[in-house]
Structure formats: structure tokens, C-alpha cells
Design a protein that fits this description.
Structural class: alpha+beta
Order of helices and strands: HHHHEEEHEEHE
Strand content: 5-15%
Distance between the termini: 74 Å
């Protein structure tokens, strides 16, 4: 066996132009898989689509990991013919709890993180005030809307100055 070939390969890697260098393969496989590189070259050599008898190598999202709690499916929805009491009492322990027969007939204002709808005039129009502490999984955080994305109508409604961003 010829003992010069490791030296020849090392010299080739260190001396050949990059586009002709074997090390280009190492660099390419750090960005793309060897399968991608080989199949791209096959397509370019043959000029046709690769016929894959076992299907695409891509992994697509599936619902295999989704599980249902059967307990949630055990109780059936209330039949349409059954009466449903929609009475709600907000602030039972308060001096003046708010009892609502049909909640949709009342104005419940959300006191939110933004700087709108907080004037005394607006707050006095509400039948109740809900204080927002968070938004779903993002408790205490807001979404910033850049000033250039806010039109004049919204700027006026939110009481913003020209060029002022808003946190919703």
C-alpha cells in the first residue's frame, strides 16, 4: 500500500483552490445534509426528478402526540330545550356587588395596560370595571405597536401624540 496518499490528500486540502477542494464538501455538509447534496447532484446530472419508492425524506407535522382526556368528552352539552340560568354576581364580598341577569346587557369596561379609556368620564359610563392583569400566557406583558403602524383615527381614539408608540 502506498504510504504517500495521506500526505497527498492533506496537501490537496491545504493547497487546492476552494471550488476544487475536497474541504468544500465538509463546509457544505455543515449547512446541508449529505442526502440533500447527493440528491441535488443526481437531479442536475440526470435532469429529472428523483423517483423515491419510500416517499419524501421530509418529516411533516402530525397529530401523533395529541391526546384527549376522555373525561372532557364524558359530559354531554346541555340540550337546547333546557333552561340555563345566566345570572352572574360580580364582587359577592363587596359592599355593592353587581348582579346581572343577562351579562350582555351591561357595559363592563376593561381597565387595561394601554393609556386609553381611563378618564373619569369614560369610567363613570361603565356598569362595572374589569382590571386586566395579563393576557393569557403572557401575564403582565404587552405588545408594542410602532407609531408608523397607527393611523390617525386610532391615534385620536387612543389619545396618542404624533410619533408615539402604543403598548396593547
Amino acid at each position: 500500500m502506498d504510504k504517500r496518499w495521506p500526505r497527498t490528500i492533506a496537501y490537496s486540502i491545504l493547497a487546492d483552490k476552494y471550488e476544487e477542494n475536497l474541504w468544500e464538501l465538509v463546509s457544505a455538509t455543515s449547512k446541508f445534509t449529505p442526502q440533500f447534496i447527493v440528491e441535488t447532484n443526481l437531479r442536475s446530472q440526470e435532469g429529472t426528478v428523483i423517483d423515491r419508492p419510500l416517499g419524501s425524506p421530509k418529516k411533516f407535522p402530525s397529530l401523533d402526540q395529541v391526546m384527549f382526556n376522555i373525561g372532557q368528552l364524558h359530559v354531554m352539552p346541555t340540550p337546547l330545550t333546557q333552561y340555563v340560568d345566566t345570572k352572574v354576581v360580580i364582587g359577592r364580598a363587596c359592599q355593592r356587588p353587581l348582579a346581572i341577569d343577562l351579562p350582555i346587557k351591561y357595559l363592563i369596561l376593561q381597565y387595561n395596560r394601554g393609556n386609553w379609556s381611563k378618564s373619569k368620564e369614560i369610567l363613570r359610563q361603565a356598569d362595572a370595571v374589569e382590571i386586566q392583569f395579563g393576557q393569557g400566557a403572557y401575564g403582565g406583558t404587552g405588545h408594542k405597536v410602532q407609531a408608523n403602524e397607527i393611523d390617525n383615527n386610532l391615534r385620536k381614539h387612543f389619545g396618542l401624540l404624533p410619533g408615539q408608540d402604543i403598548v396593547i
